[in-house]
Amino acid sequence: MFAAHSDASVKPSPIGLGRCATSPAAAHHAAATVAPTWMANMLAPGSTLVQAERDGEIIAQGAAVDCCYQVISGCVRTVMLLEDGRRQIGEFLFPGDLVGCDAAGEHGFGAEAVTPATLCRIPLRAIDERAARDQSFARELHHYMAAQLRGARARLVLLGRKTAGERVASFILEMQERLDLPRHEAIDLPMSRADIADYLGLTIETVCRGLTELRRGGLIGIDRTRILIHDGHALGRAGSEHLH
Amino acid sequence: MFAAHSDASVKPSPIGLGRCATSPAAAHHAAATVAPTWMANMLAPGSTLVQAERDGEIIAQGAAVDCCYQVISGCVRTVMLLEDGRRQIGEFLFPGDLVGCDAAGEHGFGAEAVTPATLCRIPLRAIDERAARDQSFARELHHYMAAQLRGARARLVLLGRKTAGERVASFILEMQERLDLPRHEAIDLPMSRADIADYLGLTIETVCRGLTELRRGGLIGIDRTRILIHDGHALGRAGSEHLH
DNA sequence: CGTAAGATTGATCAGAGTCAACGTACGTGG
DNA sequence: CCACGTACGTTGACTCTGATCAATCTTACG
Asked: What's the Å distance between residue B59 CA and nucleotide C25 C1'?
């Protein structure tokens, strides 16, 4: 057990702030969070606030697209369910992130709240119009989507070529980065082992074993939902973050 | 063996500029679904034509980003190589597609020619400027990136949750769609089994077995690089294309 | 305090990887 | 034109990682 204040798992979104920055090390592994700095601005015209409770559905898979959402607080997952029940989580979204902004026609992925969450529902038209008017908004939107694309592609490598242990190690580092915690601060994961498993293309049991392995190796400490990174460097190596 | 008349299936581009095939082999692999219609326009300012021979490097993994490329003819793959030699192909690109337009700082993925290819090298600045000036260009760029994002996420499901057999079936359907061939026309795959394997997160042998299985089931015909779809419906089912 | 949901650990199984052999097309040069 | 060599594709035998099935433990909560 390790000490660690049990602050809410997800930081309230400081308006107008940004979790900017991809650290040099960060550039290597999945999903550099782009800090949309324009959060507050999205709230303006025709958009409404939406609350979702834990596991509540925000977007139904296959639903017609008319709007997208920006996460204000809490954690959200995008989900693709196959006929036979197999599930893949597309991504975890944190305050500032956009959900469904890439859809065309219908939402390929659904969206659900991992924790109680607040979102801002924005008509797609409003985004189009604003992008047309506001040059720098358009540019930021473009950068955001580019970052999403980089993140998705980094996960292709993870899912296509990494071992179970490597996936788990990479995941911890990704979450540390995305939750933007100070060094030596425990990560309080908002999602269950089942969510992690479906994000990493593994089973719950394999995720557990991966975590246990890292703990036994002294790389991390585990206290239920909280993870403390003891040796980030070794964790990077364990996750094969290093490239050719 | 099936018929397979090897007529050049190269369609003229929507906007002048034919998708010129550089080799007989390349002639088959023509249009891409997402192929933007603004192909010709990209050629304008400060951009240069680049030729790449088979397996030639177009972008080095980790190279600094200063420009991106548009495929004019041929087929290109994006590649991520891990330290120990494991390889993941990010995507296959066809005429009209953009390579490296999402990069920030450095190219996470490298790019190599699958067939002899011609590309148009475009300074990123030129794209930014044009997007700033030209409203509809910016919108198309946005739509293109959204489509890329949808494609990448569909592959997350494939890599995370689909079996080997399903991946192979899905792959054939994806290629049929992307190469935009008339129904009942054989698909002439430009890439090797090794490329397919690294695209699907499998080994060469497993890809072969998957193909053989589909052939035995009567869903497809195989003649080396050429694939003929006998039963697209069944292939969709075999690939679990059906959703929840 | 009792129940339920989630997490962890163990034992066994199966799907895909690895290793190996063989087949087939193609290009080169005699 | 044929012989050979090489690269690629296919098939088979065996192995191993991660899935499945099952039991136990922990924590949260009514």
From this structure: 31
Number of domains chain A contains: 2
Measured between CA atoms, how close is B189 to chain A, in angstroms?
A: 21
Q: What is the mean pLDDT of residues A23-38?
A: 40
Longest dimension (CA), chain B: 55
Contact A81 B243 (CB under 8 A): yes
User: What secondary structure, in 3-state letters, does B202-235 show?
Assistant: CCHHHHHHHHHHHHHCCCEEEECCEEEECCHHHH
Which of B82, B128, B150 is nearest residue A102 as measured by Cβ atoms? B150
- Please tell me the distance in Å from A155's CA to the nearest CA on chain B: 7
Tell me what the mean pLDDT of segment B194-219 comes to: 98
Q: Does residue A23 carry a pLDDT above 70?
A: no
A16 in a structural domain: no
Q: In this complex, which residue's CA is closest to the C1' atom of nucleotide D10?
A: B208
- Whether A9 has a pLDDT exceeding 60, the answer reads no
Q: How remote is the C-alpha of A74 from its chain's centroid?
A: 11
Do residues B166 and B132 both lie within one domain?
no
Are A136 and A234 found together in one domain?
no
Whole-angstrom distance, CA of residue B136 vs CA of residue B143? 10
> Under a CB-based contact definition with an 8 Å cutoff, are residues B74 and B10 in contact?
no
Residue pairs between chains A and B whose CB atoms are closer than 8 Å: 152
Cα gap A44→A127, rounded to integer Å: 11
Within 53-82 of A, beta carbons closer than 8 Å to B belong to 61-62, 78, 80-82
Residues A132 and A168 in one domain: no
Check pLDDT > 90 for residue B57. Answer: yes
* Tens-digit pLDDT profile for residues A46-80: 899 999 999 999 999 999 999 999 999 999 999 99
Domain boundary among B139, B158, B177: B158
Length of chain B: 244
Model confidence pLDDT, tens digit, residues B67-95: 999 999 999 999 999 999 999 999 999 99
CA-CA distance, B229 to A127, in Å (whole number)? 41
Nucleotide nearest to A163 (CA to C1'): D17
Same domain, B150 and B188: no
| Angle between helices B204-216 and B193-200 in degrees, nearest 10 | 100
Chain A residue at shortest CA distance from B85? A244
Range of the domain at B173: 162-238
Predicted TM-score (pTM) of the model is 0.87
**Structure confidence at residue B180 (pLDDT):** 83
Same domain, B186 and B94: no
Pair (A118, A234) in one structural domain: no
Residue A126 beta carbon within 7 A of nucleic strand C: no
Let me know if residue A6 belongs to a domain: no
> Which pLDDT belongs to residue A85?
95
pLDDT for res A19: 33
Residues A99 and A179 in one domain: no
Read off the CATH number of the domain in which A214 is found: 1.10.10.10
| Alpha-carbon gap: A136 to the closest alpha carbon of chain B (Å) | 9
Interatomic CA–C1' length for residue A224 and nucleotide C3, angstroms? 20
The per-residue pLDDT for A38 is 53
